[in-house]
Amino acid sequence: MIMQNPVLLIAVPLLLAFLIPVLSSFFKGAVRFIPVLAGGFNVIAAALLIPQASGSLTVTEIGGWASAYGISLLFSSQMGYVILAVNLTALLAIFYYTLNERDLGSPLAYPIAFTLALSGVNGMIMTGDLFNLFVFMEMTAIAGYIIASHKEGYLGTFRFVVLSSVGSVLFLMATAALYNATGFLNMTLAGKSLDTLAAPFISIISVLFIMALSSEAELLPLNGWVPRVYKDSSGTGSVFFASVFSGAALFAVIKVMLMVFGSRYAYVHQGLLVLGLVTLAAGEAAAFKQTNIKKMVAFSSIAQSGLIIAAVAAAMSSGVLHNGLFSAALFQLINNILAKALVLLGIAMLGQATLQEIGGAGTKKKWLGVLISVGVLSLIGMPGFAGFWSKFFLIRELVGSGMLVFILVFLLAALFEVYYYLRFLQALFLGKSTAPVSSPKPSWVTFILLFVLAALIILIGFAPDYMIQAVSGFNPGGVL
Amino acid sequence: MGHDWLSLWSYLYGPLAIFLVGLYGLLTQKNLIKMAISINIMDFGVNLFIISLGYVPSGEAPIYTEAVRRYLPSFTDPLPQALVLTAIVISVAVTAFVLALIIKIHGRYGTTDLTKLGEMEL
Fold first, then answer.
1. How far off is chain B from A134, nearest CA to CA, in Å?
2. Which domains are assigned to chain B?
3. Following DSSP, what letter does each residue of A353-387 receive, concatenated?
4. Looking at the domain assignment, is residue A364 inside a domain?
5. pLDDT(A478) > 50
6. Contacts of residue B121 in chain A, CB cutoff 8 Å?
7. Dihedral over alpha carbons A433, A434, A438, A441 (to 10 degrees)
8. Is B97 in contact with A142 (Cβ distance < 8 A)?
9. Which residues pair with A59 in a beta bridge?
C-alpha cells in the first residue's frame, strides 16, 4: 500500500507548497485550500502509519542507497504519535489561519511558509542523517522566520534569525567534525564509531550539538528569541512555535542524543540534565513575572522544553535507556503539544494581550473560557486531565530511580507554574477589565478546532494507560 | 582520517579564526547590517573548515575522467564539498531574508542601530 512509506509525510507537503504560487495564478482559492489539503493528508497518513509500525525503529532508505551512504528515515509507532500530535496541531493552526487571519500580511507568503514548515518538521522528526537534519532544520527555520514576521514583529524575527543562524553554524561544524572523525553522516553509524575517539573530542562535539539545537528546541543558551516572537506573532504563529516547531525540534534533540551518543557517555547526559533543569527553573521563574499572556506562555514553553530534555537525559543516565522515564518524557511532550495549542488558540480568539486587559473575558465568552481552562488545567497537571498523568508517571519513575535533585526542581517549578496559570484563570473569570478590547466574534467552525483539542486532552486524561502503553518500549538499538 | 594535522594547521585553524572573527562581530556590533555581515563571516569560516577537513595532501579534484582511469591519483573527499555547496545555498537564502527584514525594520523605525531600536521598543 502506498501510504506505508513515511517519506510521503515530507514529500507531499513539499510538493504542494511549491504548487501554491503556480496554481494560485489560475485558481484564486488554491492559497486557502492547498495548506489545508497538505495538513489533512499528513494527519491521515500519520494515523495510517502508526498501526503498521512496530515498536522498534524501522529504517526507510531513500533512493535505494544503503544507510551508510545515503539518507534514511526512521519510524516507529512511538514516533508516530509524536508526528500525529505535531501534524494535528499544525492542521488546526492552518484551519484557524484560513478562517481568521488571512488578511494579516502577505496572502501568499504565509500559506507557502506553513506548508513548507509542515514538510520540514516531519523531516526533522524522522531523518536519520545528520546533514539532512541540518537541511530540514534550516528549511523549517526559514519558514519560521516568515511566520514570525507575519504580524510585523520584525525585531523579534531578527533576534530569531541571528540566534538560529548561530545554532545552525555550530550544528554544521559539529556534523563536519563528526563526519571527519567517523566517516559517517548517518546518526546510528556515526554513534557506533564514537567509541574509538578520545573523550575530549566527544564532549566538545556533544556540547556543539546541544548548543546548536538549543535555539530551535527553546533550551538555554540560545532561546532568547522565544518570548519576543511569541508576543509579536499572530495566533497561528504562536501555535506553530509552541506546538509544531518546538515539538519537532525537541524530538530532534532527543534523537541526536539517543542515536549518536546513546547511553554510554555519562558526562554528556549529566550536562544535558543540568541544562534541562536550569532551563526549567529559569523558564518558570521568568514566566512568573510576566503580565503579557503570550510572553507568559512563551516562558512556560521554554520551561517545558527543559523538563522534557531533563527527563530524557535522566532516562539515558543509567547506561541503558530507562523505558519508564523515556516514555513519560514522550507522553509529556505530546501533552504539551496539545495543551499549548489549545491555550494559544483560545488566547488568540480572545484578542487581549495582558492580564489586566483580559479581566472577566471568560465570563462574557463562557465556552471559550471553559475551553482555555481545559488547556491550562492540563498544563498545570490537574487530576483528570492529560497533563496530570504524564507528570504523575514522570514523578513515579523519578522516585523509583532516586533522582532527588530532579524531583526537587521539578516540584518547585510546578509550584510556580500552578501559581501563574491560576492567576491567569483568576483574571480570566474573576478580574475586572481596565481596558476593554473589542474582538471579532469567532465562527462556530473555530470552536470546533478548540473542541477537538480539548476532547483529546480529556480523552487522554481518562485513558492514560493507553497513551503510556503506546509511547513505551522505544527501542533505538538494532537499527541496522 | 589520520592526516598530519600539524601540516594542515593553516587550513584548520585559519577557518576557525575567521569563524571567531564573525562571532566577535555578532557579539559587539550594534548595526543590523554589520550583524548580518558577521553571520556571513561565520558561515564562511565554517564552510572553509569543512572543505579543509576533506582535503587529502596532493589530492586531485574528485571528478572521474579519462586521465583518472589511467593514473589513479588520490582524490580529495567530495562529500564535504557537496555539504558546503548546500550550506552556501542556505546561507544565501538566509542572508536575502535578513536584508529584506532590515529594510522593513528601517522603514518602520527609521534606524538600524540596535541600541536605539531597543530604547524605542522598551
1. 9
2. 5-120 (1.10.287.3510)
3. -BTTTTTTHHHHSHHHHHHHHHHHHHHHT-TTSHH
4. yes
5. no
6. 155
7. -10
8. yes
9. A74
Count of other CB atoms within 10 angstroms of residue B89? 12
**Count of domains in chain A?**
1
Measured CB to CB, residues of chain A less than 8 Å from chain B are 131, 134-135, 138, 142, 145-146, 149, 152, 154-155, 157-158, 161-162, 165-166, 168-169, 172-173, 175-177, 179-180, 183, 185
pLDDT of A257 higher than 80: yes
Interface predicted TM-score (ipTM): 0.90
Which grid cell sits at B103?
529594510
C-alpha cell at B83: 555539504
In a domain, A478, yes or no: no
For every residue of chain B, DSSP letters joined together read ----GGGGHHHHHHHHHHHHHHHHHHHH--BHHHHHHHHHHHHHHHHHHHHHHT--TTPBPS---HHHHHH-PPBPPHHHHHHHHHHHHHHHHHHHHHHHHHHHHHHHHS--BHHHHHHHH-
- Residue A211 DSSP SS3: helix
Helices of type H across A130-195: 130-148, 154-182, 187-192
Residues with Cβ < 8 Å from B30, sequence gap 6 or more?
B113, B114, B115
Nearest to B117 among A142, A155, A176 (CB): A155
Residue with cell 531513500: A62
Identify which of B54, B87, B101 has the shortest CB distance to residue A149: B101
Would the CA dihedral through A329, A334, A339, A341 be positive or negative?
Answer: positive
Range of the domain at A30: 2-471
If you measure CA to CA, which chain A residue comes closest to B44? Answer: A169
Name A40's bridge partners: none
Distances (CA, A) of B12 to A48, A167, A175, A190, B8: 48, 20, 15, 22, 6
Instruction: For residue range A361-420, list pLDDT tens digits in order.
Output: 878 888 888 999 999 999 998 888 999 999 999 999 999 888 899 999 999 999 999 999
User: Does the distance separating the beta carbons of B26 and A176 come in below 8 Å?
Assistant: no
Residues 58-117 of B with CB under 8 A from A: 79-80, 83, 86-87, 90, 93-94, 97-98, 101-102, 104-105, 108, 117
| Tens digit of each residue's pLDDT (9 = 90 or more) over A36-75 | 999 999 999 999 998 888 777 888 888 888 888 888 899 9
Measured at the alpha carbon of residue B111, what is the angle toward residues B109 and B114, in degrees to the nearest 5? 100
> CA–CA separation, A131 vs A209, rounded Å?
12
Count of Cβ atoms closer than 10 Å to residue A64 Cβ: 6
CA angle A76–A81–A85, rounded 5-degree value: 145
- Identify the residue whose cell numbers are 521598543: B121
Residue A476 counted as domain residue: no
DSSP A244: I
Q: Read off the amino acid at residue A31.
A: V
Residues of A in contact with B87 (CB under 8 A): 134, 172
Q: B68 to chain A, minimum CA–CA distance in Å?
A: 23
Rounded to whole angstroms, the Cα distance separating A352 from A435 reads 9
In a domain, residue A187? The reply is yes
Interface test with A, best of B5, B41, B97 (most A CBs within 10 A): B97
Cell of A339: 495543551
